[in-house]
Amino acid sequence: MQSSKQKDLANTNQQNLENQKRQNMEDKRKAWIGQANALILLLFIWGAEWIFSALVDVAIYWRDLDWLKQAAFITAVVASLIQIWSLRKEFRADSGEGVRERSAGSLAQAGARSSERSGWGHPALLVLPGAMLVAAIALLEAIGAVSPLFAPVLRAFILAIGFVQVGLLLGRPLVYLGLWLFALSALMGVWYLGYSGVVLEGMGGISLILSGYMLRVWGR
User: Fold this and answer.
1) Is the per-residue pLDDT at 116 higher than 60?
2) Is the pLDDT of residue 97 over 60?
3) Which residues, 6+ apart, have CB-to-CB distance to 20 below 8 Å?
4) 170 with 32: CB under 8 angstroms?
5) CA pair distance 62, 41, nearest whole angstrom
6) What does the alpha-carbon distance between residue 49 and residue 41 come to, in Å, rounded to a whole number?
7) How far apart are CA 119 and CA 137, in angstroms?
8) I need a surface site. Which of 32, 128, 211, 220 has the fewest CB within 10 A?
């Protein structure tokens, strides 16, 4: 009888421990989503740029509008830099607020805010891997390592992998979005390579905007 009670107590403790772990993971996920919300505007900017580029690729059959694609790209870069700069200012404001909290004796609250940041750090840091990937692809295209015909497939593959990686932390819908885009990229690369620039840029842009919408909904 006593052994049965001990076993039930052990099972209860194990269940409580698992529930606590799940709760901790959910708290971290919410904190990460809160940090990622600062990047929603960047997703919208580049999603719109990809869609616009795809539309220009369609219209380019009738008129030479390559300059328009370059103008859209430069506009997206400038808008992104402005947004990143605003994140930097926000980071300074949050740091100053943390100092004021500690000086006022709110150590518990400051510690909680610090632990929420311990997953990814400041949201602006999430831009760094993406910027490195964009720079790497641009370099590969510039030196001729990647044919312009295959460049849209490469970009779509990298975007799909990024969705899956982030989705493992934030939610399954992003994983499904990444898998769908990966399958579409493989399909276009094997059978419809000539249309990959239009289709993958368009679908990639829609995916970026959709991911930004998901983050906005999850962050409410």
Assistant:
1) no
2) no
3) none
4) yes
5) 32
6) 12
7) 28
8) 220
What's the N-to-C CA distance of the chain in angstroms? Answer: 50
- Nearest C-alpha neighbor of 149 from the set 45, 50, 57: 57
Q: Tell me what the mean pLDDT of segment 56-84 comes to.
A: 84
- 147 touches 194 (CB < 8 A): no
User: 123 exposed, middle or buried (CB, 10 Å; 0-12, 13-18, 19+)?
Assistant: buried
Which distant-in-sequence residues (6+ apart) come within 8 Å of 126 by Cβ?
A: 35, 36, 39, 120
Question: Distance (Å, rounded) from C-alpha 183 to C-alpha 164?
Answer: 12
176's tokens: 């499904």
171: left (phi over 0), alpha (psi -120 to 50) or beta: left
Q: What is the rounded distance in angstroms from the CA atom of residue 74 to the CA atom of residue 78?
A: 6
Contact 166, 160 (CB under 8 A): no
* pLDDT value for 104: 46
Spatial distance between the Cα atoms of 172 and 168, rounded to a whole number of angstroms: 7
pLDDT band for position 25 (cuts 50, 70, 90): low
> Cα-Cα-Cα-Cα dihedral of 92, 131, 216, 197, to 10°?
160
Segment among 51-60, 107-116, 125-134, 177-186 with least mean pLDDT:
107-116
Token look-up 């899956």 returns: 164
